[in-house]
Amino acid sequence: MKDNFSTQAEGYSIYRPTYPQELYDYLFKLTLNKQAAWDCATGNGQVARVLAGHFEKVYATDISENQLKNALQLPNITYKVEPAEQTTAGDNSFDLITVAQAIHWFNFEAFYAEVKRTIKPDGLFAVIGYGIMYIDKKVDKAVHKLYEDILGKYWDNERRYIEENYKTIPFPFEELVAPHFQIKTTWNFNQLIGYLNTWSALQHYKKANERNPLEYMFTELKEAWGDDAEKDVHFPVLLRVGR
User: 34 lies in a domain?
Assistant: First the structure.
């Protein structure tokens, strides 16, 4: 698994969007027992902290030590620096396994073998993510220019799985038909810039060119944003659920 997020771990914890409560309610309703959950590639523990309010124990892993340093510490969450494909968890340990906005980086075959080893016979497995946000026509056009025209060749090949709404990832489980969810939030302009700075392709661009591409786009993005103090922001939630 690639570690594309250690360098911007702090920004990731501040600016990345959070999943709606309706999504969690849906998953919890399907989870038969709530003794233990594993949040794989937990990052800053965004999902793990919600799971901790419903499960006796939460096991949260990530390959980025910097990300885990920015995670919320709770007594029933155990954070470990471990790859998704090889953990120290025991067999048949978890009632729920989640992986949010990360599975596209994994070795699918090895990770799925680990899921099947560690999940309980009646456990639930959920792949979660979100696509590109939409705000309004002007801002979306400027963001698309950054995404496609400037950063296009700097996106990792795995990004295509998100663009394809996770529909093309292998999923060797008994799949449930999941409802559609959205992340709905409000941002000011600085939050938009903060979020864009967390993009992995933007970090690749900076390494290759020793400049932040937002220097070229800042004025265009600001003009597209206009005079609004805040704008509504929507992200489509990507979701595959199985047993």
Answer: yes
Q: Summarize pLDDT for 134-176 with one digit per residue, the tens.
A: 999 999 999 999 999 999 999 999 899 999 999 999 999 999 9
- Domain with 143 in it: 8-242
Q: Are 13 and 70 in contact (CB under 8 A)?
A: yes
Element (H, E) at 214: helix 214-225
Distances (CA, A) of 173 to 64, 93, 115, 121: 28, 18, 10, 12
Average pLDDT over residues 174-182: 96
Tell me what pLDDT residue 11 has: 55
Closest CA to 1 of 158, 118, 165: 158
Q: Is there a domain that residue 3 lies in?
A: no
**Closest to 119 (Cα-Cα) out of 217, 219, 241, 215:** 241
Name the domain count of the chain.
1
What is the pLDDT, as a whole number, of residue 7?
45
Average pLDDT over residues 199-225: 95
Contact 84, 43 (CB under 8 A): no
CATH number for position 99: 3.40.50.150
- Tokens found for residue 15: 């600016």
